[in-house]
């Protein structure tokens, strides 16, 4: 699970694991959680998104089965930065063909970009070599998380 800092990665992961999300602090390094999803046990790596941590993301790419990329839909100022980081991910050889679920997070906030707006802003239609899906969600409330994960699992199963 990747994305810029403050995009909601840890909150989403805790929500999926059924844990309390009332006190979340920025991730320094990474968290690993096992979550049950659509009959599968997933080991999800939540890797910090601060600028100084991003160069280390590549250490986690090998043997990755899927990418969950979290975007703060309410922070329009950082959309270009989120798009740049995702674009770099898509060019990584170790991630070639890996399915990508983009969570358009923070839909509970006024002025949040829609899933369609996120798809356009991140230029997701340009990635033809893999399954890519945008799911509008709120990690805080949990809305959209299960739906997105189910679609990702279905896509992953269809590819095997």
TrEMBL record:
GTP binds at residues 3-10, 49, 105-108. Mg(2+) binds at residues 10, 27. It is found in: Golgi apparatus. Transmembrane segments: none annotated. The keyword Nucleotide-binding applies. The keyword Hydrolase does not apply. GO terms for biological process: protein transport. It holds the Pfam family Arf. One of its GO terms (molecular function) is GTP binding. GO terms for cellular component: Golgi apparatus. Its main location: Golgi. Coiled coil: none annotated. Keywords: Golgi apparatus, GTP-binding, Lipoprotein, Magnesium, Metal-binding, Myristate, Nucleotide-binding, Protein transport, Transport. It comes from the Eukaryota. Belongs to the small GTPase superfamily. Arf family. This is ADP-ribosylation factor-like protein 3. It comes from Favella ehrenbergii.
């Amino acid at each position: 699970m990747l994305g810029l800092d403050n995009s909601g990665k840890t909150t989403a992961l805790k929500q999926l694991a059924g844990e309390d999300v009332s006190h979340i602090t920025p991730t320094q390094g990474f968290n690993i959680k096992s979550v049950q999803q659509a009959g599968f046990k997933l080991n999800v790596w939540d890797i910090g998104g601060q600028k100084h941590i991003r160069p280390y993301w590549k250490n986690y790419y090998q043997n990755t089965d899927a990418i969950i990329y979290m975007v703060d839909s309410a922070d329009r100022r950082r959309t270009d930065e989120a798009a740049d980081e995702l674009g770099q991910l898509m060019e990584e050889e170790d991630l070639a063909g890996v399915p990508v679920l983009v969570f358009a997070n923070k839909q509970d906030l006024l002025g949040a970009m829609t899933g369609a707006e996120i798809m356009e802003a991140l230029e997701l239609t340009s990635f033809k070599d893999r399954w890519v899906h945008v799911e509008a969600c709120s990690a805080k409330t949990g809305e959209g998380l299960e739906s997105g994960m189910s679609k990702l699992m279905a896509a992953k199963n269809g590819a095997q």
